[in-house]
Amino acid sequence: MEFSAQQIAAFLKGTVVGDPEVKVSNFSKIEEGKPGTLTFLANPKYEHYIYGTKASIVLVNNDFTPSEPVEATLVKVENAYASLALLLDVAEQTKQRKEGIASSAYISASASVGEGCYVGAFAYIGDGTKVGQNCRIYPHAYIGDHVTIGDNTTVYPHATIYTGCVVGSNCILHAGSVVGADGFGFAPEGEEYKKIPQIGNVVIEDNVEIGANTTIDRAVMDSTILRRGVKLDNLVQIAHNVEVGENTVMAAQVGIAGSTKIGKHCMFGGQVGLAGHIKIADHVNFGAQSGVISDIKEPTTVLGAPAIQARNFMRSSAIFNKLPEMYRTLGQLQREIEELKKQLNK
């Protein structure tokens, strides 16, 4: 489908600068823009691309003022990035949705599947499980016994939901994700380790997205909980009895150890690691590869391992670069002191 700049601006409540009749039918990155596509500019450091892009329409923020002529038509909006996300969502909704239940899918006689659901080939839905309306269960997905899934949730191929877990509405579980595997619980017994049964479950609230090959372990007792709006990237590890607060986001390879409690609206860069049994306040930001071993009690940004406040980390990094020079200076000073001692002793 094609849409004109004027139609897009009307939908986004924006304004057109340029040709209101120019039309687009696809999206592109600003540096690789092609005629007939729409792109966006939200970060000022990429502004130079807008002067050479071949895209027909560029979404920009209302405060953007070009310093050179721009060939493309601009649509000015309050938030270019959020507006792009809205348009992409509309485009996604126009795609044809799979429907029906494949003959090779297994659905237990005691399970219930809501209206409008798609269940792909060789998907498995166990005893007593309840799947809400308009869900998408893709081929080879495994949903164990006594699982509850809300409406409009998507479970992609080879995702696994273990027995007794709860997944809310409007959630997405990407390929290979695992919900409800045993937590890493073992008790030393002589020279060996005895497995501690993990008899709890995982509870995932509404509007949560779980990346490919991410694992959320079931609790020893009670529940491991992902609150409403949590977004996890690929290859994230959430250990047993962890609680992740609303609208917290984690990039790839984050690892959270057992029984840690994380607040609302936190942001984790890649490869962040948190020790177990600690508490994190709301609105804490973690730079990539931060290692946290103790509570964080107020909103802040941390970097490093062990993690410290970002400003202190940057100052320490600046000193670190000067350590070889400082070491040579220290050696020279030590030699001068020794020489002065010899002269004084004479």
Explain what this protein looks like in three dimensions.
The mean pLDDT is about 95. This protein has 3 helices and 40 strands. Strand 39 (about 300-305) and strand 40 (about 310) form a beta hairpin. The protein has 3 domains: about 5-95, Udp-n-acetylmuramoylalanyl-d-glutamate--2,6- Diaminopimelate Ligase, Chain: A, domain 1 (3-Layer(aba) Sandwich); about 100-310, 3 Solenoid (UDP N-Acetylglucosamine Acyltransferase, domain 1), CATH 2.160.10.10; about 310-345. Helix content is about 15%, strand content about 30%. Strands 8-11-14-17-20-25-28-31-34-37-39-40 form a 12-stranded mixed sheet, covered by helices on one side. The protein has about 350 residues and is an alpha/beta fold. The chain starts with a strand and ends with a helix.
Determine the strand fraction and express it as a percent band.
25-35%
The CATH architecture assignment of the largest domain turns out to be: 3 Solenoid
Structural class: alpha/beta
What percentage of residues falls in helices of 4 or more residues?
A: 10-25%
Number of strands: 40
CATH classification class of the largest domain: Mainly Beta
| Average pLDDT metric | 95
**Which stretches of 5+ consecutive residues score pLDDT under 50?**
none
Per DSSP, the total helix count is 3
Number of domains: 3
Distance between the termini: 95 Å
Short description:
The protein has 346 residues and is an alpha/beta fold. The protein is built from three helices and 40 strands.
Which labels suit this protein?
Udp-n-acetylmuramoylalanyl-d-glutamate--2,6- Diaminopimelate Ligase, Chain: A, domain 1, 3 domains, alpha/beta, UDP N-Acetylglucosamine Acyltransferase, domain 1, 346 residues, 10-stranded parallel sheet, 40 strands
